[in-house]
Design brief:
Length: about 375
Amino acid sequence: MEIESKCLHLAQKTNAESMDRSGALSFPIYQSATFGHRGLGESTGYDYTRMQNPTREHLENTIKELENGIDAVAFSSGMAAIGAVMELFSAGDAIIADMDLYGGSVRLFENISRKNGVAVMQLDVNKQDVEAAITTATKAIYIETPTNPMMRVIDIKKLADLAHRHGLLLIVDNTFLSPYFQNPLDLGADIVIHSGTKFLSGHHDTICGFVVVKDEKLADKMRFILKTTGAGLSPFDSWLVVRGIKTLSVRMEKEAENAMELAKWLKEQKKVKKVLYPGLPEHEGFEVMKNQSRGFGAMLTFVVDSKETAVKLLEKVELITFAESLGGCETLVTYPITQTHPDLSKEQLDRCGITDCLLRLSVGLENVEDLKKDLAHALED
């Protein structure tokens, strides 16, 4: 089954029992905290929603199939998912992470992980010698691709080969492309993370996160962490994401089409100094992206000529919403230096290239000509 059909029909495949009884196309919301037992040692497979719930299980089975994993675990947010993955490591362990990551991930690493004795070293995995940074304490490599917000592309297979030569895990945040455009597990990654709040949900109406693995031992560990820390996704939010996934393919295709058109248009605007979109042939990650993904996604970043221009654009856009987040039906513009990356030091911001002239677009489903008009108005003198 191709991925477009999977987005629609995995729901029915895993809902066969309910379909047989009622014919319902929409999976039920099992809004129950606990489940009854017929007798001692007799369980229906569900005991307590913190551990598992039929609606959440249905969503997890769908994500597992979309990412070609052996298990997927649904969390209450993307950060809860990342935090759960970091619970795989112990005091004295070390992680190598790319330098360009969502600011919330960096905040977690520098405050919570460090407090717990897990050291996270950030470097440019495309340009610096990752192998030389590996020590006996190193347990994993952590990346996003494309990166947030600089849209850098990292060769997943190349990094997976390096990680596995040294017995390390490769962890890939696949939020920007979703499983519709990219499947890191197929390229050698061991763990895939999603902020399901974004493209998977797709409607700016719920917050969730996912961890997908391809190894039974990792699956058992993640299930234990979920049960113990209690950050599982609620039944109703699980149902919202199931509903969102049904339109994932058409949303991703149209949004990527709009993003490509906007990237080309922005390049021609006199106040725009640089456009970062991996679908442009001049992007340094263009060839790698073509080899490891099925599309270039709906995220783009651009640099304007001054802070004043950036602030003016944020204040003048009308159709486009100035907001933090991404991946919904509506186009959003985000100011990374104050919204997604405010906790980074000046040195960290400078190293990544995040300045007060940098803007990030999550391109939605609007008519692209309307988006151009809105941006043109906001860029006027």
